[in-house]
Design a protein that fits this description.
This protein is an alpha+beta fold. Helices cover 66% and strands 7% of the residues. It is built from 30 helices and 10 strands. The strands form 3 sheets. Strands 1, 2, 3, 4 and 5 form a 5-stranded antiparallel β-sheet that branches. A 3-stranded antiparallel β-sheet has the order 7-9-8. Helix 8 runs antiparallel to helix 9 and helix 15 runs antiparallel to helix 16.
Amino acid sequence: MPAPKPSQIDAVPGFIVAEIVAAQPSCSPSALPPAVDAIDDADPDPSAALSSQKLTAETIQCTLDQLNQAISDLSFELSHHIDTHPELSTFLGDSQRIEGQAQGYFAELDRLSTELHEPQNGFLAKLNDANHRQQEARSKLDALETYLHILMSLSSFHQGSTVFDSALGQKEFQKASVILSSMEGALDQLPKWDDVHIFAQVQARYDTCNQMFLARLELTLSDLLSADTDDTSGIIAAKEYYDGSRILHPGSIFSAAASGHGAELIAPWLRFCLRALEAVLSSPASSCSVTTEPDSSDRGCLVHRLKYEKADESSEAPWSQTSPDVVFSRLKEIMRFLVTHLFCFDLTEIKDKSDTTGYTHIFRERFRQFYAGDIAPRVIDKYLAKCVPESLEQLDGFKIVSQACSVFENELLSGGLIEDQDRKLSEYCSKIDEHFIAQTTLTLLEKVRAVLVKSQYDTVDVKEGSDQVLLPTWVSNCIPPLANTTIAVQATEAVAFDGLFQFPSCAISARTVKFLKLISSTLSDALKVNNASTPKLFDSVREALDLYRIVMPSVHSTKFDSVPQLCMVFHNDCMYIAHQLLYLGIPFQTFALGSHKGVLSFTDSVVEFRRLGERYFNMQLTRQRDSLIQSIAEADGFGMQDDAREAQVSKTIKLVSHQLKHLAKVWKSVLPDYLFLKAMGLLVDAVMEEILTEVEGLIDISKDESLKLNSALIEFEGECIELLRTQDYQRYIPIVNKFHHLALLMDSSFAAIMERLRAGELFEFSNGELTRLIKALFSDTPLRAKNLEEIQRRR
């Protein structure tokens, strides 16, 4: 056998070589050269190992022989299996046939791919070329279409321009308006190219036509219409005459302007009608009329004039005293003039709603907007809002106004001038309860504020006992009878309650009485209106209460600070209002049901008013206390060692006494007795405590000085007790006993002082206070030292 080529050796799989080598007895692993054994240990791939080592010829020949033998054996075995199993032969034949067909298909695919991708004559190259030629053709076609469109637009514009000149010359304004719109449409169809001369010429021609149209409209309209109006009076005149075979009237102008060109010419005449409307709605005494008469010219004109005049302010009367027919007759005159003589329409034409694009439709829509946006709001503001009743008794009388509004708008609706959703007047009237509540709330707040801001401080006495607090009848009817309660009907149609609704005798401001009357009247109305309106009226009273708490402190704070009496009167006002609210809310406690339950109450307001009154009461006491203590501090001590000091201390005591007497005088007449005693007691107690501190602070008190202090303190104590005028003054001036004993100490011997001490009369003084007083009054002696030791052991 010839020696194998290197390429043949490289092609033999390694695992076959390993198997052959392992199977040959003559070529066992032990017989292999050391180099081959090393290859097996170093690399699992025998073929790679054999190719990388130097093999002997005998080894290679032996391996090839064994390989050939193995191949022969395998071929024999394969042939044996094929003979044994015929299906394998069939399968092998099919496989070879399919493999041949596949090779044919692959060859055809290679040919087609070559034809498809060939750069010059391939299918893709031809397709790209065809697409390119198609795009060039489409671009040329688009350009031709654009040029054709431009020519058609220019031709249409030129034809329209010629017809426009003819129509405008013959005063066929509506036709000219339509042609002008078509010219505008043709102009809009032109491409938006810059620097195209013919386009600029067409635009300039259109602008010229538009200006000519507007100028001719305005000139003709000035010949047909005239107005001499202001806010008080005026005349609007509309003419109509024959121009050739046509009747020329303002409607022909408005019909031409309604399409959009010259629409601004209509607005001034609508404003003139609104001015007339506002003038005739100013008062029932105003006037409005429409007249028709021939013109003095030779054109056979008819002149229709709307004349109106506002009444003099001195002759104005409330609308509530005038029949609604007056105002609605004027409204109809203005509407009739507007429709018939300005827009020149017959109502039968307007009723026909089949026209949805022409002038009738345009006028109908414009009138609807004018009515809903201008006429109805002015009628509501100038007339209906002023007819809203101010009292509950007048509420039924508003039905006449509501019916008149309904009839008026039904006529407009049947005439085709408005739609059902445009009935603004009827809609306003249907909500009269809401408007009444709003009007009542506004009126209440205005009246309350007017009462609160006045600089009048008159007072009214509230008496306890014989002159009971009077409850309004509408409140007493809601309160069940009480045991041991006498009820007596007064001449004022109110009911007096003893016991439960007692308020102490005092003085309140007249403004508070007026305020309570206002809210009481509103609450009375709240029980008479429908259930839905009652909470709203109740809330308006709560707003008035809030207004009181805001306005009074802010407007009158200066007076409250500078005039002690007014501040205490304000305290009484707050307490009195809180007391009144306790029963003013009683009828509403069982009224509200469902979601409103628990809302209709003045409980929180009672707390707020009491808190406000207490705050100002305490503020006034603090201010007066600080003023009195400041007066004492200005004495610079209570020492009377010389005449000058004696005069200064006496002056201070008299000044404080005078201040207290003034306060007692002005507060006695306004405060309840228990509050008067409380207020004066607090001030006197603070003053006595300050004086006591000043005296205890003296270091050395001579005999003569102590006598002067005794006299001054005793006198001041008597004056203070007299101010309170009660046997129970010690209850309101807790420090009065201590002050009295201080005065006595100033005129007592050492022995008398010790006797009072041992008798327990000086229990108000602390050991330190007594020690300081003893040291100031008496010289340092063994007796004083002994007594001081006794004082220290006292407690």
